[in-house]
Amino acid sequence: MRRELPMRLEKKSPCKVNLLLNILGKRADGFHELETVMQPVNLFDEISLERGGEGIQLSCNHAELPTDSKNLVYRAADAFLKLHNLRAGVRIHLQKNIPLAAGLGGGSGNAATTLLGMNELFGSPLPIQALDSIAATLGSDIPFFLYDQPCLATGRGEKVSTLENFPALAGKAFLLSHPGFGISTPWSYQNLARFPEALNGQTGRAQKLVSLLQTGDLQTAAGEIYNSLEAPAFDKFPVLSLYKNFLRENGALVSLMSGSGSTTFAIAENLVAAENLAEKFKSQFGDNGWLATVKI
Ligand code: C5P
């Protein structure tokens, strides 16, 4: 019996934080070898996909984002259709809620969610391994978002080993603070060259952190939380280091910049503690950026 294909789908596109981002060195291809521990965050952009029309028609609520082949959502849909030699048309709307250039992987998540959505819309012709291969060609962080699970990633970030939820984070909550300006990922990596120690990390830190998070001891794990890309970001934007220290001094169990920035995240004991911390943060720094609290 032939299964009816959906005409239209609504998908939630999550974001992430890097609990650890340890750069191991620059590679011959210009990318950086790294090890990272990534944690999904339950804050979402929304993507609707509908079969119909001709080619790919992308719209977006965010005026700054292109809606042509410069947009990762467009490129993901295009790669999927080309792989199948499908001449079908698709209309996609992207509703951005997560800030841009924030170190939260919003755009990467959008690309992965589009791949998953396209596959569903066209009857799931591709296994996850095939989606993973397309994802890795589109961007280093994109494969992670196909799984919606914590992971340890290596290579340039595209080699993903999925993990069970970390016992150390059970019941905890995130506070995410975006300063109101973004940081470009290529800029961060280029400027890492000025910080040789941060550029040439020792391998093994990611596995160590994962083991600690798996035993449930967040206090010990907190000592291992690290991001090499804080070095160039804090040098250019000292306010980010103020954010990090303020959060830690006011009750956060952990605070760190995520990815290439500019978002700082804190981990609090529970959602109420995260909300209290957000209030303190606002009274100290004002209400100019983007602040969110969410259960892990
Ligand atoms: O892979 P993605 O397109 O997300 O990377 C954006 C940019 O970040 C790359 O062009 C590169 O400059 C830098 N990058 C890097 N090493 C990585 C990941 C990203 O140098 N592992």
Helix and strand run: EEEHEHHEEEHHHHEHHEEHE
**What's the CATH class label of the largest domain?**
Alpha Beta
Strand content: 25-35%
Distinct small molecules: cytidine-5'-monophosphate
Low-confidence stretches: none
CATH topology of the largest domain: Ribosomal Protein S5, domain 2
Describe it for me?
The termini are far apart. The strands form two sheets. Strands 1, 2, 3, 4, 5, 6 and 8 form a seven-stranded mixed β-sheet that branches. It contains ten helices and eleven strands. The protein is globular. It is an alpha+beta fold and 296 residues long. A hairpin with a 5-residue loop joins β1 and β2. The chain has two domains: 155 residues, 2-Layer Sandwich (Ribosomal Protein S5, domain 2), CATH 3.30.230; 129 residues, Alpha-Beta Plaits, CATH 3.30.70.890. The site of cytidine-5'-monophosphate has 11 residues, from β2 and α4.
